[in-house]
Amino acid sequence: MTDGGGWRPGSSRPPASWRKSSYSDNLGNCVEVTAGPGGVALRDSKNPRGQGLLFSASTWHVFIHGTRSGEFDLG
Description:
Blueprint: E1 5-7, E2 19-20, E3 31-36, E4 39-44, E5 52-55, H1 57-68
Antiparallel strand pairs: 1-5, 2-3, 3-4, 4-5
InterPro entries: DUF397
Protein name: DUF397 domain-containing protein
Pfam families: DUF397
C-alpha cells in the first residue's frame, strides 16, 4: 500500500475503530478515519466495505496542518 492508494478492508486487518467528524451532516455525506500501525485510513461512511485511502502518518500530519492553517480554504 502506498500513500493515497486504494485500500479495501480485509480479514487480515484487525477491526478498526472508525471515527466520523463532528461536522458531518445527517444526510450521510461523511468520511470516517482510523489510525493504525500502517498509517491513517479514510473511507466513505455510506460505503464502509468499499475502497478507501491509506496515508502514511507523516502525510496525514501535513494534511491536518494545512487544513488547520487555512491552506485549503476556497473562499
